Amino acid sequence: MTNDNPIVRLEGVRLDRGGRTVLRDISLDVPQGRVVAVLGPSGSGKSTLLAALTGELPAAAGTVEVFGRPIPDRRRELLELRKGIGVMLQGNGLLTDLTAAENVALPLRTHTTLPKPVIDRLVRMKLHAVGLRAAADAFPRELSGGMARRVALARALALDPPLMIYDEPLTGLDPIASGVVMALVRRLNDTLGLTSIVVTHHVHETLPVADHAIVIANGGIVFSGSPDALETSADPLVRQFLRGEPDGPIPFDSPGGFGAAPRPAEETA
Ligand SMILES: Nc1ncnc2c1ncn2[C@@H]1O[C@H](COP(=O)(O)OP(=O)(O)OP(=O)(O)O)[C@@H](O)[C@H]1O
């Protein structure tokens, strides 16, 4: 997967947490316009990888570039970069005492000086984009799980970020709601000209909408290729993950979690 101007580029990245190497030797290019699925068992380091993309976790080695520039060290520049990354975290993260519209308006109120009528209009557009314009005045408790997830998606889109990151967008959703959310992820990616990274262990719901998939396990990328190639892979590690088998090359009981790199952090290169 190569591209001269990828939206995200990782080169030889090592990520440590709590003094332990979680991921090592990670190289990945995400070209503009793609939907990339980041798959892997629980504790393999998927969220850790996302934390590196948003600059929350600096790489212990290697380079992480987003929008063609290394992740900045300076807080001000980092905050600026983050405005270009829409993040939908696990669960909804919706504020329960605010309506759907007020939740979507939050990033616009916090990060822009736009007048209220303009914000109201943008909020209506975002809710329309996720098919929920009629639910603007509903509180999160009045929404189904799938609808609440779509409001969270509208909120992540509020500032028109060119890059969207989804961390387990399907947790707790039934198969129908999962299908709706993933179809929306694909449609928004294409109609708004975004690039999307979807971190999930919901392989079968995510692969149909992805252009590219990577699997992380045992502290590194163990597969990188098309969804078709993933499903037909004969690699025992990939097979074990796809079938959800406890026995195989991915250890179930390594220290610190399933599939985590079981060795201490090396010296920074
Ligand atoms: N703040 C932290 N301090 C120390 N270790 C951490 C920290 N966050 C995560 N880890 C460890 O890093 C490893 C990877 O965790 P991570 O949350 O990235 O995995 P994941 O693939 O996202 O898991 P899940 O699918 O369960 O969310 C785990 O062994 C975890 O215990």
Describe this structure in words.
The chain has 269 residues and is an alpha/beta fold. Helices cover 33% and strands 23% of the residues. The chain is built from nine helices and ten strands. The chain has helices at residues 46-53, 75-83, 100-111, 116-129, 145-156, 175-191, 203-206, 227-231, 236-243, and strands at 8-17, 20-30, 35-39, 61-66, 69-70, 85-88, 163-167, 195-200, 212-217, 220-225. Strands 6-7-8-3-9-10 form a six-stranded mixed beta sheet, sandwiched between helices. Strands 2-1-4-5 form a four-stranded antiparallel beta sheet, covered by helices on one side. The structure holds adenosine-5'-triphosphate (ATP). Adenosine-5'-triphosphate binds next to helix 1.
How would you briefly describe this protein structure?
The protein has 269 residues and is α/β, with parallel strands linked by helices. It is built from nine helices and ten strands.
Mean pLDDT figure:
88
Question: How far do the termini sit from each other?
Answer: 26 Å
Q: What is the N-to-C order of secondary-structure elements (H for helix, E for strand)?
A: EEEHEEHEHHHEHEHEEHH
Bound molecules: adenosine-5'-triphosphate
| DSSP, total strands | 10
Query: How does the overall form come out from the CA principal axes?
Result: globular
Nearest-angstrom radius of gyration? 19 Å
Number of helices: 9
Provide the low-confidence segments as ranges: 255-269
Structural class: alpha/beta
The portion of residues forming beta strands comes to 15-25%
Major beta sheet, strand line-up: 6-7-8-3-9-10
What is the percent of helical residues?
25-40%
Largest sheet: 6 strands, mixed
Region (Disordered): 243-269
InterPro entries: AAA+_ATPase, ABC_transporter-like_ATP-bd, ABC_transporter-like_CS, P-loop_NTPase
Keywords: ATP-binding, Nucleotide-binding, Transport
Domain ABC transporter: 8-243
